[in-house]
Amino acid sequence: MNLFDRILEARGITGPTKAVFLSPQYDARHDPFLLPDMEASVERLVQAHDRQERITIYGDYDIDGLTATTVLLDALNSFGFERVKAFIPNRFTEGYGLTIDAIERIAAQGADLIITVDCGSLSHAEITRAKELGVDVIVTDHHNVAPQQPPAVAVINPKRLLQDHPDEYENYLLKPSSAFKGKIYPFLDLPGVGVAFKLVQALQSRLTGLEPGQEKWLLDLVALGTVCDVVTLVDENRTHVFWGLKVLSKTRRAGLKALMAVAGVRQQAVDARSLGFALGPRMNAAGRLETAQYALDMLTATDPMEALQYARQLDEMNQARRREQDVILKEALIQAETFKDDPVLVVASEGWNHGIVGIVAAKLLERYQKPTFVLAIHDDEAKGSARSYGDFSAADAIRSADSIITKGGGHKLAAGVTVPASRIDDFRAQVNAFYKQQNLREQAQLLLPSADTDAHLEEVTEELIAAIATLEPFGNGNPQPVLRTEPLMVRGVRRMGDSGQHIKLTLQSDTGNSIDVVAFNAPDYFFVEQGVSIRVWYAPELNEWQGRRRVEGRLLHLEVV
Fold first, then answer.
1. How many Å apart are CA 14 and CA 173, to the nearest integer?
2. What count of Cα atoms within 13 Å lies in the side-chain half-sphere of residue 222?
3. Is the domain defined by 24-219 classed in CATH 3.20.20.190?
4. pLDDT digit string (tens) for 464-482?
5. CATH class of the domain at 453-560
6. 340-446 domain in CATH 3.10.310.30?
7. Is the dihedral of CA 417, 440, 12, 474 positive or negative?
8. Where in the chain is the domain with CATH 3.10.310.30?
9. Burial of 215 per CB tally in 10 Å (0-12, 13-18, 19+)
10. What is the pLDDT of residues 89-127, one digit of tens each?
């Protein structure tokens, strides 16, 4: 069995699943009407179309919400809805999700129907208020759901099925043996933009204007939102990103073309990494610093020069975000040393931008290898973000502090919380007590890379890398393959970067084959001495420079042997 086949076997991609995984078929999509309340939402929208009612799409300020908003704006326009507008809340003045104040303003503007994207599942009071004001609400969302649904016309959220049929799913996929096959939606980890896209597919069965097949042109937006929301890239998500990248490579959207140009992404070579590390941060910068409306304006721009202006503005915001992030990180690192013995880090300070603290939390998690909360204090309130890993749920930790916090929630690995400034110490004590109650073992080991398989250097070739490319798009649930090789002799050590923070090791096997492995911002233990023998974990990649091509490795971990 060759090395690529061993990688496939390690991932369970064998037999009939191999062809399906390597070549996802868009036409094998799941029936959108298997989602909860899809029929009711379509009926209500057909009625709105017949009456040309005023519709407000209530988005969110992250990329999932922005792309979902744009998908619906684009599709409803194609279907012939004439009075549709978008509302994007401001992170700093309104916060996440529906608010009663926003509902009242939208109602005062004459809206007949609100469609939420990427929010709304827990907004009972807000939707009740909308109903009192004579405004119907359709919720499209993918976040956690309540036991009792809010009083909306429809709540389209795949997670409702996990609540109703918990034993029928495993890792968000309907079990092959389930008696509900063909009766309930088989995949529950759609992002908000994926749920919005399924609504579009359902509407195609009742309305004209967006002919079957033409909805594929929306997949550039779906791919962007899916990758940046870090949902698992399996099943329908993989299909959407696989085909969405092809659409993005020839997208008609002036805004996305401009953003790729500003970010230095070659349109014909765009991949999932480009979305997560080049386009995504620039779009998110608007909502982190000022308002996400700038990013929405870029996505919906039709004039190329106007789109370029927005893209440049986002690029400048992203640079400002990085500068501000560096300042906060330095201060947070100093404070973290005080609490470095705690299993959960909780740091807080006045003057920090709460739109940026989530990124800082991720940096601290990486540095200290422990779940982290970073709180920005403003007046008597502290707002912040959490990042976690492994088996520790940040959302559950927040729930354990219900008697302390003002509000909070989110996902297992990323969450948000608001705490009275006077109760920060109490909150820190509670989340640490909660961690200890979990009796977790060897959590730090979960941060180490796991190799798909062992490999000999002579097997790591250009042909292998070409084969690995067929597994793209890479991301959550489908990471780039990792190889482990041992023993290798360190034949060369080269420090790189302004302060020598990067490293390149030249490694040689006992058969004489060699490979260079590179790590940027490398941890101290990567700086080994020439002549030592090591085992390495690395992702094989092709380095092309000045017309020369050579196989290298992105160094992920090493052990001296």
1. 18
2. 29
3. no
4. 999 999 999 998 889 999 9
5. mainly beta
6. yes
7. positive
8. 340-446
9. buried
10. 988 878 778 999 999 999 999 999 999 999 999 999 999
